[in-house]
């Protein structure tokens, strides 16, 4: 429908008035309007500060809440059930408002000490400590497991400077976990740069664990599953144009079968990738990202833990070097 000249003039006057009141869009407003997951990841630093409306919230957390509210049952593809008592460093990160640990679960983590958990930054970005709970000491997600509240979340300051880069975070617990040398709750030592030369060679077998989906479009599992003999894929191969085409940084590890069929998957994020040593397993990677689950030429991508040993030490000792 055509408008009369008088109506057009009135419309222009109204727009001018609105512009005068609101002002032009600032750079900050434009950034908040246009930024996506990759950019917002960099703004989420520590949940010691309250999350605000402009901060992207953890996608896995939001999905767990949505599935629980909609009654939908909630990534280790081709994994095997983990016998009771195995992988005692594995924890589940859950939404605290969901009473059932199975439905609450949205990410995994690894016990570093009695009061510190290592996980992926993308699992906890934008969340407050009060919004999550840690379940430990069990391979089955039920109400009999040990649970702990969270005191603090520390996300690496450079998370998101590149897509998926520096995808690592620390969670401090309110109360210590009852660690032991042979019990169901134990810490896992970190792999160091000195270890990599002999433990992270091409084809070296790794182990990944989690309660995530067993197929790309499947549902989560209540009982922990594991995948052993998951081979390391060298960075240069993972960066081929037929694979991730240069997206794998020096802070990442690839592991999987190029033909597909073996991988971590959705729900395993934040959990451990371990390397066997003569004495005990060591944490080599944190489940981070990948294109789909167990696809050909798309192995799983893990945060390279050895690059963050100093950062972890600084943060748990409250050193100023933690996030500066």
Question: Which labels suit this protein?
Answer:
single chain, alpha+beta, Thrombin, subunit H, 2 domains, six-stranded antiparallel β-barrel, six-stranded antiparallel barrel
For the record, the CATH architecture of the largest domain stands as Beta Barrel
Helices, by number, come to 9
CATH topology of the largest domain: Thrombin, subunit H
| Strand segment tally | 15
Radius of gyration: 22 Å
Number of domains: 2
Distance between the termini: 59 Å
Give the H and E element order: HHHHEEEHEEHEEEHEEHEEEEEH
* Structural class computed from helices and strand pairing: alpha+beta
| CATH C-level label of the largest domain | Mainly Beta
User: Which residue ranges are poorly predicted, with pLDDT under 50 across at least 5 consecutive positions?
Assistant: 1-54
Largest sheet: 6 strands, antiparallel, barrel
Descriptive notes:
There is one protein chain. The chain is α+β, with helices and mostly antiparallel strands. Helix content is 22%, strand content 25%. It contains nine helices and 15 strands. The chain has helices spanning 5-22, 27-34, 37-41, 59-70, 101-104, 121-124, 193-199, 235-238, 309-316, and strands at residues 76-77, 80-81, 90-95, 105-113, 116-119, 132-136, 146-155, 169-173, 205-210, 225-233, 252-255, 263-264, 272-275, 282-289, 300-304. It has a six-stranded antiparallel beta barrel with strand order 9-10-11-15-14-13. A six-stranded antiparallel barrel has the order 3-4-5-8-7-6. A hairpin with a 6-residue loop joins strand 13 and strand 14. The termini are far apart.
């Amino acid at each position: 429908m055509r408008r009369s000249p008088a109506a057009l003039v009135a419309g222009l006057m109204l727009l001018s008035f609105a512009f005068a009141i609101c002002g032009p869009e600032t750079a900050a407003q434009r950034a908040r309007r246009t930024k996506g997951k990759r950019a917002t990841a960099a703004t989420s630093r520590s949940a010691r500060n309250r999350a605000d409306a402009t901060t992207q919230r953890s996608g896995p957390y939001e999905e767990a809440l949505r599935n629980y509210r909609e009654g939908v049952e909630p990534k280790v593809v081709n994994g095997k059930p983990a016998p009771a008592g195995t992988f005692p460093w594995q924890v589940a990160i859950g939404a605290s408002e969901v009473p059932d640990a199975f439905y609450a679960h949205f990410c995994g983590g690894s016990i570093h000490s009695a009061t510190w958990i290592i996980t992926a930054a993308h699992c906890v970005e934008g969340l407050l400590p009060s919004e999550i709970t840690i379940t430990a000491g069990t391979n089955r997600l039920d109400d009999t497991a040990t649970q702990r509240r969270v005191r603090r979340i520390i996300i690496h300051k450079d998370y998101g400077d590149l897509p998926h880069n520096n995808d690592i975070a620390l969670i401090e617990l309110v109360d210590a976990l009852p660690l032991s040398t042979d019990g169901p709750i134990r810490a896992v030592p970190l792999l160091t740069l000195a270890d990599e030369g002999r433990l992270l060679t091409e084809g070296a077998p790794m182990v990944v664990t989690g309660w995530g989906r067993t197929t790309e479009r499947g549902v989560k599992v209540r009982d922990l599953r594991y995948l052993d003999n998951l081979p390391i894929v060298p960075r240069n191969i993972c960066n081929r144009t037929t694979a991730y085409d240069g997206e794998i940084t020096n802070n990442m590890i690839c592991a999987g079968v190029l033909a597909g069929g073996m991988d971590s998957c959705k729900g395993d994020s934040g959990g451990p990738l371990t390397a066997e040593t003569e004495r005990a397993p060591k944490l080599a990677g944190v489940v981070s990202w990948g294109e789909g689950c167990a696809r050909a030429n798309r192995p799983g991508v893990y945060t390279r833990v050895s690059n963050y040993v100093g950062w972890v030490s600084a943060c748990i000792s409250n050193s100023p070097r933690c996030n500066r």
